[in-house]
Design brief:
six-stranded antiparallel sheet, about 15% helix, 25 strands, SH3 type barrels, 3 domains, 4 helices, alpha+beta
């Protein structure tokens, strides 16, 4: 029917994004409706079925276009990285005003009042997007509650040089469990680690490692030396270089985020796939 990537383009035989008119065949086109993720984290799946594995996760404050809501499932396209899939419709609410901050802590609690002794109503993960309102007693009001102000960073305030943010974010997440499709400190995969680290640095980044290998930063030649913060790609995998000898990555080998000698990674990948590094990019 089409060569368009289903991860980034919303199309089915019966329904498709109106922006794809002329590129696909579908019974009906729709422009969709805006909405915003209003829960701490929402799984995005390739089918409206709880038994289908997740492709990625959407975080609080992420805007989406909703193309269909049916049987408690919403078919959406995320604005932040363009990913398309099905999520629980109850995780969405009306579109919010432009965010002013993102979560800088690994995670932060949402309280009904600016008081840590009140019952927690939600948990927001690193790089969740919020618009802050009133400040009181060290807390700021956001849609749905209050969060500790020091756990937020103003958008646009990040260091324009992403190298250290990339590496430090990766190292902060050491020991966090590996989870396919995950995008929070409770579990994430290799490309999510890179995406979260780049979002923390204030940079846009696609979701999956093949997309990142094709577009993140600039491509370097095979003979280029490896520097701190470089992105190193392998078959189905990506790691962040800490220097020319060590990387930090989320790996299925140990099922967590860890620091590892680059030489060990290359040897393991060659043994499994018959080839080592496939791309070397620098932001």
């Amino acid at each position: 029917m089409t060569d368009l990537d289903r991860r980034l383009h919303a199309f089915r035989p019966d329904l498709a994004d109106a922006a794809l008119e002329g590129q696909i065949e579908a019974e009906r086109l729709t422009q969709g409706q805006p909405a915003t993720v209003r829960t701490g984290c929402a799984d995005l799946r390739r089918a409206p079925d709880i038994d289908t594995g997740i492709d990625t996760q959407l975080l609080f404050g992420e805007d989406v276009t909703v193309f269909e809501v049916k049987d408690d499932w919403a078919w959406v396209r995320a604005h932040r990285d363009g990913y398309v899939g099905y999520m629980a419709a109850e995780a969405l609410g009306e579109a919010l005003d432009e965010p002013t901050h993102q979560v800088a802590a690994l995670r932060t609690f949402v309280y009904p009042e600016p008081d840590m002794k009140t019952p927690v109503v939600d948990v927001l993960s690193m790089t969740s997007l919020v618009r802050v309102g009133e400040t009181r007693d060290g807390y700021v009001e956001i849609p749905g509650g209050w969060v500790f102000a020091a756990h937020l960073a103003e958008l646009g305030s990040q260091d324009p040089e992403p190298t250290e943010v990339l590496c430090q974010t990766g190292l902060r997440l050491q020991g966090m469990p590996y989870r396919w499709g995950g995008k929070t400190s409770l579990g994430l995969d290799c490309s999510a680690l890179v995406q979260v680290a780049l979002h923390a640095a204030g940079y846009d980044c696609p979701r999956d490692s093949d997309m990142q290998a094709a577009s993140a930063g600039r491509l370097l030649g095979e003979d280029a030396s490896i520097e701190r913060g470089d992105l190193l790609f392998f078959p189905g995998h990506v790691a962040i270089a800490l220097d020319g000898e060590f990387v930090v990555h989320a790996t299925q080998q140990s099922m967590d985020v860890c620091e590892e000698p680059l030489e060990d990674v290359i040897e393991r990948v060659i043994a499994e796939y018959g080839k080592g590094m496939t791309a070397h990019r620098r932001m």
